[in-house]
Amino acid sequence: MEETLPLLYHGCKLAKDLEKNLPNLVNNPEIILKSSEEIISVFSRIKDKISLEQMRGIVGESQELQQQLGHDIDVGIRQWLKSSGAVLSGLHQVTPGVTFHEHVLEHESTSSRMIKGMQLQKEEPDIGFRDIVESSGGRASGEMQLLINASDSNRILPRQRKRKDSGSDKIVKRVAAPIMGNLELPPEDGYTWRKYGQKEIMGSTYPRSYYRCTHQKFYDCPAKKQVQRLNNDPFIFEVTYRGTHTCHMSSTAPSAAASLPEQGPTSFIDTTATGIQLQPPFSTSLPATTHWLSMQVFQDLRGVSVRSAVASSDTEVAGVDSRGGAGPSAVRFHDYQLPVVDMADAMFNSNSSSSNSMDLIFSDHKWDSEEKKD
DNA sequence: TCAATTTGACCACT
DNA sequence: AGTGGTCAAATTGA
User: Torsion angle, CA of A50/A51/A56/A59, rounded to 10 degrees?
Assistant: First the structure.
């Protein structure tokens, strides 16, 4: 963990340098792109390291340094949030996200699968969730099919139920609860989900919630997820993903998302003719006309999520959801992501002389080389 | 009015 | 028989 702190400072310095030189780089998108990629790479490494440390912490090691790091970042982020009008409330101790992957093996009991299949993310700088999924031979979600026993087919049933999907891959993630807003709500992951059930689980203090993709009806999207709080830490959600989103594949589908939750934090910046388009680490179900900047990098660092105070472009979060921000899902979405204009303004708006947002974010740190230029 | 959530019941699975 | 996943009617809210 000790080595993470200098890395974090390094990443912050890179971001600050970019901000400082931005006026000179307006006509050099290539340099901006390269610099941005470098920043992302650094923070990605930090995230991986912290996730690994967090995993170790869960199994018993000290989290003092993480808390110290978290405090340092948290102070700056809180100031920034205040400056950008975000609502801050209910701050509590959170633990940065821990990523697991479970490749389910057949003919094993659920509990044994949970233990045997769980893989700690490798401590390699740039390995993403996608790598883990692919290397484990993840299968398509088409396996989530309706199976009816031959003997059952003769029975007169009031309704047909899908067979429990015990054989398909599932991905288990542990994510920190949002530190703001409704703590009862599960963390957002960029997709819109519809809750279809809740169940008390034996041995669990908290009930398990069942969600399926909002677009299941229209696009036959089989993606599902289960969300459950941990017994010993109610601020950590264990999210189990099943099935792969197919809703974004349809030409008429509302999203053109390229990466799935299962495919992990392959964050990148895509500069387009219209400006900067940032790809949320856990994909997006956003229409192409909406540009968002995920706060995942910060959330993964500290378990921080942000409620956007700006409502522009907030409709059609899922494209099909004509109710836009009316539904709880959409509301939760805003707990998680910011419109890119806000974040871009915060990070790159060199004209904001009165309030330098980047300085607010990292105000508690002394930069090792340069003082802030007025 | 319509979509999302809640919740009791049903049913697959072990 | 117990547990967990899903269904669907009822309820809620915009």
Answer: 140
